[in-house]
Design a protein that fits this description.
This protein is mostly helical. It has one domain. It contains 15 helices and no strands.
Length: 440
């Protein structure tokens, strides 16, 4: 597999080359989500709510999986920066082994405990609860392949090789887009049909990653598993994984609160999140780019270059997120009408976009800073920030909803995002400048 040296060349050119393929992958994911939501939205708000309800628990799986994705990504990029090929392969071997165990265990949990998970939300809608469980059960095999695809993507990124990931993701998304209407409407499988299409697409992507890696992603029996490296990966990945797990658990609790206002509110949040992901297409690209960029340059001890990359990514991200905030405020209703026709759902989704529009720039600061901290091998910092302010969403929501109703929940999300952005940049100014004098 091609390896790109991120320690040389103009910073903005290197970051752009890294970020664009990630953004392209995110754009493809958004395009798929858009089309998927359009197809599912045609079945009504209950169908959207079914997928929205189950998505909290699939999201929990991805949060757990980040234990290995983040830890392996950090160590592989550091080893590449140090030009230690033996360590590169040992970390990949260890990552594959951990990933296999996590994917099998979580798939079984979804099948066995899926109904209990959905019941916890108290949806009070038999149709939505039944379809939510069916969709969740179908995600058991999906997540097995998707977990590996996430790890493969991160390893490719550590090598600076995001172009191949973009191509593979493009193929997967196209397959998904083509198969969605076939399974949803022609075969009349409804929301289960959407899951079947996603499963097939992930299997194809899994195969393509294995082929394109030229053996680098294959488990090497001659090297085996280094227990110390397994523990290194888990130690590095645990803080961010715990943060993401807690973030998802908080969202599940918020979903339980949102369900008080009816399944239309759950559908509205699902639609709002899909629209908001337009911002994260770019910001997620910058996050991944700065993490890989920082990782290799940290391994090469080029701290001044790390600072240049961080501020370049911040500038690009803030400009873009401010533009998106304006769009969310001015054009929220026309955009939402693309997904759904029920007036009540449109009004609730509009209030969601109105609230989160004010936090987009702060979310950008948080995500770019997270990429920097992750690349430096300091994942505890973003984990602590996220844990503290994400948990605050629950009491803030409970207080604000007394006077603002469902909008109080939306504003709890926006306020916590603003606080996380402020905290992340403050920690950068205080801790990173103190520890790395060359980054002043």
């Amino acid at each position: 597999m091609k390896k790109i040296d991120l320690t040389q060349g103009k910073v903005i050119k290197v970051l752009t080359a890294l970020a664009l393929p990630i953004m392209g992958s995110s754009l493809l994911q958004f395009t798929y989500n858009l089309i998927d939501m359009l197809w599912v939205g045609g079945l009504g708000s209950d169908a959207v709510a079914s997928i929205g309800s189950s998505s909290f628990f699939t999201g929990l799986g991805y949060s757990i999986n980040s234990l290995v994705v983040i830890g392996a990504g950090i160590k592989v990029s550091h080893a590449i920066g140090e030009k230690n090929n033996k360590d590169v392969k040992q970390y990949i071997n260890s990552g594959l082994a951990i990933n296999f165990v996590i994917s099998i265990i979580y798939a079984l949990i979804l099948i066995i405990l899926g109904k209990s998970f959905i019941s916890f939300l108290n949806l009070n809608n038999e149709f939505v609860e039944r379809n939510s469980y069916y969709y969740l059960a179908m995600n058991a095999p999906i997540l097995f392949f998707s977990f590996f695809n996430s790890l493969y993507t991160r390893i490719f990124s550590s090598f600076g090789n995001n172009g191949d990931s973009l191509k593979i993701n493009a193929i997967g998304m196209i397959i998904n887009i083509v198969l969605d209407p076939i399974f949803i409407y022609i075969f009349k499988l409804g929301v289960v049909g959407a899951a079947v299409a996603t499963l097939i697409a992930n299997i194809v992507m899994f195969i393509l990653y294995r082929i394109k890696s030229n053996g680098i992603l294959h488990y090497d029996k001659s090297i085996g598993i280094d227990k110390e490296k397994v523990m290194e990966i888990m130690r590095l990945g645990f803080p961010m994984a715990f943060q993401r797990i807690l973030f998802t658990v908080v969202n599940i609790i918020l979903a339980k609160i949102i369900a008080i206002f009816g399944t239309n509110s759950i559908a509205a949040q699902k639609i709002g999140l899909q629209i908001e992901s337009i911002t994260y297409m770019v910001i997620g690209g910058l996050n991944g780019a700065i993490a890989s960029f920082t990782g290799q340059n940290f391994g090469a001890s080029k701290f001044k270059r790390i600072k240049q990359g961080y501020y370049t990514a911040l500038l690009l991200g803030i400009i873009y997120s401010m533009i998106m905030s304006i769009i969310f405020i001015i054009f929220k209703e026309p955009i939402i009408r693309l997904f759904i026709r029920e007036k009540s759902t449109i009004l609730i989704a509009s209030s969601y976009l109105q609230a989160v529009a004010f936090s987009q720039s702060f979310s950008t600061i948080e995500m770019v800073s997270n990429g920097l901290f992750t690349g430096l091998g300091m994942p505890k910092i973003p984990a602590i920030i996220s844990i503290v302010f994400t948990v605050l969403r629950i009491p803030i929501a409970l207080v604000l909803m007394k006077t603002l109703g469902i909008q109080g929940v939306w504003w709890s999300i926006a306020i916590s995002s603003i606080l996380k952005g402020v905290a992340a940049y403050s920690v950068y100014l205080i801790k990173i400048r103190r520890n790395y004098k060359d980054v002043k």
